Amino acid sequence: MKRFVFVLSLLLFVGFNLVQGQGVQVTGKVTSADDGAALPGVSVVVRGTTIGAVTDFDGNYSITVPESATTLMFSFVGMVTQEIEIGGQTVIDVELLTSTTRLDEVVVTALGISRDKKSLGYAQQEVTSEDVNITSNPNIKTALAGKVAGVQIVGQAGSKLGNTGRIRIRGAVSMTSDGDPLYVVDGIPVGDPNVIDMENVKSISVLKGPNATALYGQRAEYGVILITSKDATGGGVSVEVNSTTTFDKVAYLPNYQNLYGAGYDGDGEWTIMDFDAGFAGRPFHPDHEIFDGERYIHSGYADESWGPRFDGQPYVAWYNIWPDSPYYGELATWEAQPDNIKDFYDTGVTLKNSVAVSGGNEDFNARVSYTNLNQTGIIPESYLKRNVISANLRYHASDRLTINANMSWNNAEVQGDFDDGYSNQTTGAFNSWFNRNLEMDKMRELVDLQTSSGYHASWNYWGFDYGAYFGSEKGAFWYNPYFWLKHYQDVTKRNDFIGKISVSYDITDHLEIVADAMTNTGYWNRYYEFPFALGNSAEPELYNGWSSGGFGNEDRKSMENNFAAMLKYSNQFGEFDLQAFVGGNIRMNSYNRIRANMSIGDINQGLVIPDVFTYSNAILPVTASTYKWNKEVRSIYASASLGWRRLIYVDITGRNDWSSALPADNNSYFYPSVGGSFILSELIESSFLSFAKVRAGWAQVGNDVAALALNRTYPLSASPYFGLPQMYTDATAVDPNISPALNTSIEAGFDVSVLDNRLGLSFTYFSEKREKEIIAVDMSTATGYTGYLTNAGSATRDGIEITLNATPIRMQNVVWDIAVNYGSSNSVINELPGDLESMAAPGGNDDWGFVFVTHELGNNWGQLRGRDIATDDNGNYIVNPTGTYQYETGQYLGSVLPDFTGGILNSLTLFNLINLTASIDFQKGGKFYSLSEMWGNYSGLLEETAVLNDRGSNVRDDPAEGGGVHVVGVTEAGETYDDYVDAYTYFSQFQSNTIPTPFIHDASFIKLRELGVSVNLPQSLLGDTFIKGVSVGFVGRNLWLMAVSKDNVHGWDPSELSQTYGENAQLPGTRSYGFNVKLTF
Amino acid sequence: MKKLFLIILSVALSFTGCDISDFGDTNENVNGPLEGNTASLLSGAMTRFSTRQGRPYRITPTLNVQYFMQLVYNDEMLYADYAGSWWQYYVQTLSNLEEVIKIVSDPEAGSDPAIIANGSIENQQAVAMIFKSVVFKHITDLFGDVPYSDALNVETLTPVYDKQEDIYAGMIADVKAARAMIDVDADGPTGDAIYGGDMAKWVKFANSFLMQMAMQLSNVSSSQIDAEAEFASALAHSGGVIETLDEEAWFTFDTQNGFNNPWNWMRPADYGVTQELISSLKGYGDNSVTSNTTFDNRVLVMQQDTSQAGLPYGFLDYGSDVKADVASVLLDPGTPLPLLTAGYTWLNRAEAAARGWTSENVIELLSNGILASYASMSAIYDPDDALQLGDGATYALARVADAGSVGELQVIGEEKWVALYPLGYTAWAEWRRTEIPVLVPAADAINNGQIPRRYNYPSDESTLNSSNYQAGVSGLSPASDNNTSRMWWDQ
């Protein structure tokens, strides 16, 4: 290994002369053409060299230029790059114009190389700090929503603290995975981009396809998101203080019915207490005698709402029956609680405070920041705490030697039970198993209420009848959710450190060597405690099978270290510009997990002495499991970019990787790319046309396998059976001749801007083919295996991306900018292994197996597959004699991928003081399944289970008396069926027959995601105080789900679905409001 | 471009002679064994098989033979036409056994100390082969024609479905070959979770199992298998057959390590013992489905509270009626479960005699079967004799008398139904062959109103192994993949 580094360094030096040049000192000041303000952080570069400087806080710079130099380039994000002939001047002051189209930017490209954007042969989009911080959103992924063409946010409700969803760029093309892109922060690959505080982000650059990412090789199959953090500026000390407060309120819930309450059997549930009679020959609980003669629900344990119609009359509720209750002996009123679910949730509060100090002098500058995030969730008892300390340090050791150090330390802690799977104690009950008559304020108030024998009193008590029958005081299936959340502890802690030390040395004016050492070290811990109080109130002999207490602890350590070196060359030869580099990288990953979890759902497990959370106190021995792996990838790469007359640019890159995860004799693979651009506007003198470019490229990028995918072991049982570990054959067979998967991509497009850059259009077409995918092919399990890991199959994706920038108004005091992004993508499965006509796609299935995400040969990527209502040739539903639908198994019900996504960003600046920004994003197409909705129908909770039918009666009424659900179809014999079907039969058939169809919806939406208003206090107000700037802002997030597909009757937010197939029982969406204050000293 | 790279690379490598593609042991997998251990694999197959839980793998057959009923969530009781599942048998049960056979079949195996430490290689192979046939009988009795000769081979991604007749011929041949391989004086397999390596008992098991397989074919004639002769030859084998409790094959569960009786998984509130079972055993009352009129004490280990009448099988909605709880002993995590008992084997012999396959005394065998069933149920389910099951002698006498009036085959069939409790799979295979006792299909059945004759093929097969699946379906009568189609031996 060390030898490899040595070779690399030698290699970089071979064949180059070390020439030192004489220089001339040039100084000056850079200001904004708009308002004359000094511009700190402007990059000043001698054209054709790597010699550069950065302006200080007052906009001043100083640079030593070689005698041969002719031109200085001044560039700054968001400004038009200027080139000035030096012509012997020693003082050059420059005014930069605000760029509206951002076509002249210097952008960060693969491996952190800064490039003139117009020379690029592929599409690349940058997002500014302002645009991702419209609402000071702590989640970098959702902050990107709608701001980059072709980027889809596969969201997660913001209420799931510490969980940030993921991003899908250009749809999907891998048949086996649907992953997040690679996030690179200041050159350091990181797993979770939230290790960096958003306040520290200077810009984000999105590399979408292989043409842009070829130099990252195998890691970039889902694209790359390059994050550049704010760095130090020269000049005096500057302090920035930022404080944001946001409130989250639950906003998006399904539509509930409010006519019927708990029970299974309508009005037949009403029973009058006859205390002496008891039930089924067993006596009632003595404490319930005071209800003799009162009415109650017979199926007290019913966690459905097919019970009696609300009549406003008294009845015995769960909180009336225990002597400890302040309402003991009283009666409740049988009426709907329309807002009971909404009322359950708290208002989440997010406090985010940060301070950043930066400054320095000619030789040394630094920026250090600290951010504290303190968030309470909408789920009671939940919180997120995060602290981030970051530092960017730069030391100019000499004219030629620069040392940079970047580091960020992130410490986060999340408490709360955010389970959003089927049957969890909060969302798993509310939309699936609940009563419309439950009063949430009583639950909140009576969280600690106990039964006569001291058990937890649940809303889901068996009821008088079954309580007598079973002799039980406990809940049948459910706890009071507040009780659960109060006692169940689930804490996740993270500690992440990313760091990089970079040394660069200008060997000559044209030749620079850079060496980097980087680390990304993460420590993750989860600890949960399930106390006796919970287990003791469960009824394992009946339903509620929790253990008598338990806990678990899991530690994960992951580390990625990279060592890279690069030799950069930059020169002019007559009319030619050359920028080239060669480099190498060694990446070492390691992972180590140790887990010892007690199963809290196992009635045989538990703690002997209550609430003593030590392993030696466990009823069954707790088996620890460990898992670890190492992986190493060595890479060499090179790139050359040749420009001619600033008119034509040609780029060539190549990269070779050696991966330890591949078979030893076949672990090397090479990927090339070639691209070019032609800048038409250089040939056309026109006052109308500001800029025009066409570009095209071809690239390949490959992917290897996970560390241990090919090096497999025999699985062992979790614990031995009578002293003998149980061993099993591996369920996956491995093809011995596996080779890396290969993506081949072409991309072409153009960028045009007109009318002094007030209107700009960028268009990109891409087409990508993926071959030799490494697939664990499903095969007949009669082979003794479930899968065969081999190279097989092929998929393609193509699409277009359009970005449109316009400045409809650009006046002295009013500037209005609009940016529109649009991306469409179409992914198709072209080949499957062997004779397969379908295979499992990434995304799994819902907890009840209604839909499976599946690839179908010849069809779009990721179909929902499951049963469908059978239809005849004319599309009529085929109906059984009972009025239920017939079904067909294994039907393809549509792809989860949208047809297109996009966003509109509006920004209005008034008097240079007030800024109003609104971000809208949208999506057309794609399918999702809602398991909650299925259960909500089954349990009679949702609106459609209690609406009026077309005869004017409630569907729950007896069909013979005008009620029932109107069903029209044909019988199996082909005769017309037109009748009214009992509501329970109708709404429960989908569960009984596993038919997902009514609950699969189109995922289209338009959403006003972000709105921000910020006001900068004018300088005149601040006067001569030490305060240099004050800005106050008001922000709103997720304000308005403006439109969803018509069939999405419950308004599930398709941008916040936690699962690829849809949702299982997910947390509700929130609307957020807040304000922030920013002070600069 | 690639050429340029290779040049640079070779220059680089020439400096040091180091191999950039050599990662040493970086990627070594340290998370588990790289070599198979025959003891752990054999035991793993047995425990996997015996701990299968859930409705398709444990409960559904006990509903089909009306041992249990479902109070709510009763799709299975009403014969929902679900796709079946077999991966738990093929993957990590049969594949484990195949791996053991592969390892011990290696010519070097006999001199490998790591392998012979787990028992003589012949005995290891014999037990693996016998158990493999146990599992295969299970699979083919559930589905019909299934992959057999092509199965368990990664080279064949789409294995052919063998005819059930061929599978039976193969299983019988395999068990006989294994029996011949057994050396009772050599060490038995270390990983034998059933007999602890007692090879003499494995010979008895092989013979009893051969008799069970032969009897399963009583309704069909086969050019390949002479069921009557196979039965007689197994019975006549010098190693003997299972006759006493200590020769019976039972699975023991290691609760301390989480290997629990799979019935422990069943949610007791949802299930009850049927009125059909209770009434039949008590010898009176509604819905009795047997000819019995004498109180059968074995009901004491089946029903928690014998004062209850239970609910009849097969209704969608029982309103507020009270079910009869399943006896808690069946649900205890540590209760052992039978695989093959003396009682059932005696009853197989009784049936063979009644059919004229052998010349043994039917009445004596029937009586032995009942007494042996009493003995094992008492020992396993009531070890402290708190329930005082007794020896069953009175009951046996009464049943012998019944045999005289209603017919020997009927009483034998009824007694098998009782003796096989809670082995739903075996009882269901017997019932489909004999249709004894006379069970009434669920009143609210949601298939076409018949008691299922099989499981539907796993849903994957129609896509992953399509043409062979079609061939499998064509072997059914009628040739459709439903739970009411019949397989070869079910005629």
Give a structural overview:
The complex is a heterodimer of chains A (1081) and B (491). Helices cover 7% and strands 45% of the residues of chain A. Chain A is built from 13 helices and 54 strands. Chain A has a 22-stranded antiparallel beta barrel. Chain A has a five-stranded mixed sheet with strand order 10-15-16-13-14. In chain A, a hairpin with a 6-residue loop joins strand 23 and strand 24 (383-396). The two termini of chain A are 48 Å apart. The model of chain A is unreliable at 1-21 (pLDDT under 50). Chain B has 491 residues and is mainly alpha-helical. Chain B has a single domain (38-268, 328-474), classed as Serine Threonine Protein Phosphatase 5, Tetratricopeptide repeat, CATH 1.25.40. In chain B, 46% of the residues lie in helices and 3% in strands. Chain B contains 18 helices and six strands. Chain B has helices at residues 2-16, 38-50, 55-64, 87-105, 113-116, 121-143, 164-181, 199-216, 227-236, 275-282, 328-331, 342-354, 362-381, 393-406, 408-419, 424-434, 459-464, 466-474; strands spanning 68-70, 146-147, 161-162, 249-251, 271-273, 337-340. The model of chain B has no long low-confidence stretch (mean pLDDT 93). Classes of the chains: A mainly beta (1081), B mainly alpha (491). The interface between A and B is large, with 82 and 87 residues.
